[in-house]
Structures are given as C-alpha cells and as structure tokens.
Amino acid sequence: MTDLPRIGWIGLGIMGERMLRHLAAAGHPIGVYARRPGVTDAFPEATVAATPAALAAWSDVVITIVGEPADVEQVMLGPDGVLAGARPGSLVIDCTTSSPALAARIADAAAAIGVDAVDAPVSGGPAGAERASLSVMIGGTDTAVARAMPILSRLGTTIVHHGPPGAGQSAKIANQIVVGLSMLGLTEAFLFAEASGLDPERVLETLGAGIAGSDLLRVMWPKVAAGDLEPGFRVEHLIKDLGLALDAGHAATITMPGTALTRELYHAVRAAGHAGRGTQALITAYDRPADRAVGTEP
Amino acid sequence: MTDLPRIGWIGLGIMGERMLRHLAAAGHPIGVYARRPGVTDAFPEATVAATPAALAAWSDVVITIVGEPADVEQVMLGPDGVLAGARPGSLVIDCTTSSPALAARIADAAAAIGVDAVDAPVSGGPAGAERASLSVMIGGTDTAVARAMPILSRLGTTIVHHGPPGAGQSAKIANQIVVGLSMLGLTEAFLFAEASGLDPERVLETLGAGIAGSDLLRVMWPKVAAGDLEPGFRVEHLIKDLGLALDAGHAATITMPGTALTRELYHAVRAAGHAGRGTQALITAYDRPADRAVGTEP
Fold first, then answer.
1. Could you give the C-alpha distances from A219 to A46, A212, A226, B281, in angstroms and in order?
2. Of B22, B172, B274, B277, which residue is the catalytic one?
3. Which of A70, A84, A197, B204 has the fewest CB atoms within 10 Å distance of its CB?
4. Which residues in chain B have their CB less than 8 angstroms from residue A244's CB?
C-alpha cells in the first residue's frame, strides 16, 4: 500500500518507457493505456486500461507523451479521451512537444470539469530520460504546477515554470529553434570545411575551444564526419517542432526566415527517405564535393 | 640585447594592440607601421617605419592584422608592401580573417623570394587577445608553421595547424559560419519567446541547461534581452566573414543557403545603420510584437 498518487501513463515510446520506469520505481501505482498490443508488457505490474477515458477514471494523475499534436488532441479531448473520464480533482500532464494553443485549450477544457492541467514538454533525449536528468518546461496555473512538481522532479533536474498553460510548449519550441538553426550552422560549416580539404577532427578541436563551441557541436560533428545518421533525435520530430514554431510564430505575427529555411531543408531530407534518421542527416540535403568528384562536369 | 626575433607589426586596432603588447612584454624588439598618425604612440619603445616594405626590411617576422582582404592584399603585395621589402629567410604571419585564396597567393609570392608565410586568423575577441587565450587557426608549410609557433603561442592557447597556406583561413571561416547561424538561431528563438510572452531569463535557464546551450547563447541572450547592442564583435566584420564563406564556398562548388540568408539579414541590419553594433543587433532586422503594440493595424 502507498499514499503516492496513481499514475496513468499514455505513450510508451523510447522516452515514455524510460520516464515511467522512474515513477514505478518510486512506488507509484501505475496504469497504462496503449493503442498497440504488447507495448504494455514492459510493465507487468501495471493496471491496463481499454481507453484513455478508462485510464483517467482510475488515475489521480494522467501523463501523456505521444507523437503529434493531433495525437494529443485525440487522446485528451476525443470521445474516449482522458478528459471524458477524468475525475474532478485529478491532474493531467502532457509531456509531448505540441502546440501552445492546444495546451491552452486542454487546460480550459480541464478546468471546466474541475481537473488541473499542465503542459510539460521535456528535452534531454533518451539518455536524459534514462538518467532522470531531463529539462522540463512547464506551463500551467501555480496550483496545477505545484501539484505536478513532485512527480516531474523524479524525471528531470532542470524544471522551470514558464507561465500559464501553453508557456511550457512555447519554451520548448524556442529550444527547438536554437537546436534547428545550430544544426544548420554546423552542417554548413562541416560542408565548407570538407570542401576546403580540412581535417574534420582538427576543425572540431578549433571550433570547440572557442565561442562557436557547444555540446551539440561536440556530439553531432563527429557523427557527420563518420557518416553516422542513426537517431538520436529524429528528422521527422524536428520537422514537427519547427512547424509548431512557424505556426505559433505566425499566430503571434512574427516571421522567422531562418527557422523556415531550416524546416524546408529538413523536408528535403525527409523527401529523400531519411525521416527516421537523426537530425545530423541534414547534410544529405546538400550536394557535396565528394559526390562531384565522380560527376559529369565537362 | 636579446636573441628574440624582431617583430614588425601592422594593424593596431582593438585586437592588434592587445596582441602586440604580449610580444613586447616577452622582450621582442618591436617595429610598427600604421597608416593613421598617433596610433603608434601606444608603443613608444617601437621602431616606426614609413612603409610596410621598410618595416619588413627591419623585421625578422612581420605580423599583420588589418581589416579587409583588400587591405591585406595592399599591405602584403602592394608596391610598398611587406613582400617588396622582406629579407630572404624572414617570416610573415597574417592574422586577419581573410580569403583562403589570397593567403595561398601571398604564400606563393613569399616563397618566390625566400620568405616563409603563414595565415593565422584568430578567434576569442578582445578579451581573448588581452588574456593571450586566443584560438589560432594556422595554414602554411610545416617549416613555416614551426617557425611561427613560438610567437603565436604567446598569443593563444588553442593553436591548430589546419593544412597548407589558406587552411587557417578556411578553418576560421568554418568557425564564423557556426557563429553566424548560431546568432540566427538565438535571435529567432528570442523573438519567438518574446512574442509568446515568456520571461527571457527563465527561457535562458531552460535553454542553457540542455543541448541548446552554448557560451554564445549565455553571452548574447542577456544582451538581446537588455537591448544592449554594444560590440563585442561587429556586424560589419561578420558580414565580411560570411561573404568570404560564400565566395570560397562557391569556388569549391558548394552552396550554403543558411549562410547566405544570415548574411542577407545582417545586410539589413547594416542598411538600418547598425554596421558598428555587435552581432546581437541581428534582432533589429525583425519586426517585433512590441513595435506592433503601438502600430497601425485597423
């Protein structure tokens, strides 16, 4: 027996499974819902629910981390969705990177039935999820966030409340803009260094030591140099995030040409069949001198 | 009396003066040439030459750090230039961020008269110059670089030989591509965060803790938030560097749309009168919601 809140979890992907593991280990009673059969086998101790609504009826706290905003909308607001079953006084937390406007809409719908809601997208990747060292960006009322904190603090180390519902999503999107444009910069720098006949390792030594240095550069540059396109963080997810940035930006009457260009180039990467590769696959959107060495120039 | 080589210096700007100070303090006999009168007063102990050629005739080693590639060309290859006066067996080092092709041309011209030449652009800014902690990117023959090393090691801490003449310039340009695109990313992320009503300090806390974090972000984000456009590193210099990137890239048959877009936006900053501001002035190229709050929308 435990006094810890019952956690209902939706989204057992590469991130979700690692995150839920920490809450189960902490002693929370665990419930799960999954569309695909077999996925819940990883948590034999969990109560399995047939619908998100049924899971919510069992839960004190429902946490979701699914794919696209459309999935979030269906899981939260659909006919068998979380809010169709959630008990008054319960709490819902969406950790998906999703639309700020949708997060605000969910919070409104939740408030109307006496449920607290926070948006709490995360960054740090599978390694951060595994080590419970995620960065968590929260939007919600002070009351809702105070309730979510003890749970989220089991998943991450940098946990910042950014403002009202949707503000967590906005902060995550700002993060992804930096990531996307940083990938563009390191990709074009790599391309230039390669075309100039430089040794990638020495260039990294130079760049890493100065103001151009970053963890992203130190992680991604060697992968680009080695032709290692394994994810990490997938092209299709960054395309989604940059699309959220542009949509929310347009709604706020700002334009971001760098973000738009980056998304467009990632669309070229996806069109070439690399949607499931890591974001370092951006280099495949460019013609490279190595290709031209066997080319057809007269 | 000293056995240390005589250093002839051309370029006593914000970087050059700080760099030369270390060599003077180490005991090198110092000579200077400057176009503008009075500039050399900062080094009363120095031998003052009337032309670059005359300076080179006095010097064992000539070091240049001037503005644009056109300045480098004139100072090195012009009628009264360094190579018109340099003694066989002497060494010339260009620390300007300049064209890789020009660096190769200078090295060829130098070799023809028995002079060694290296390109050795630096990064780290005035603070790095002051602390002798610059990152130095070198191109040149092994012989020339071995001769330059004892001198350059008094100016910087990360000193990497990237390849033949021009390779130092290529590495520096790769560095500037990363810097330029990183500025674009943090600028659009800031704009997005601002339009979303987020607190810039909290967003920096979140971004700085994860894979989006970098020294550049930590230095520049607070300046953008405070509207502090003081240089640092000037808009006009980054425009030059990104132009070098595109020119050298085109010569190597690569295209870099992100670099081109970034340069174009910096041209807009320059057109608005901000050429002498710091690179964080990129935000002035964008319409901001704060401007629109007092706007004319019906």
1. 36, 14, 12, 29
2. B172
3. A70
4. none
